[in-house]
Input
Amino acid sequence: MNNPDGGRSPHPIEHAKSRTDKVQEELEIAGAELHLTHATLENSLPAQQKKGDVKKALDHTSTVEKKINAAAEELDEVTELLADEVAQRHELEAELAKRGR
Output
């Protein structure tokens, strides 16, 4: 596949891997930022203020942080599968090119 500027356009699976890499990186950053926010609030607030809605908010940020980290781990698995598929595709293309010579 060629794009208008003369370069080769990525195959859809390569494009999907590139996008999952980017989303995974963004998820990891979001998880780290949320962890930092949660830790700051947890450590800065006196115990007497960690009740009611504030406690619910702290608990919620902790839950969301765990979900973000779990999603990042799952996306890592998907990214690895896509990388394997891309590698297999390149191997098959190379083998076909050899046979075509």
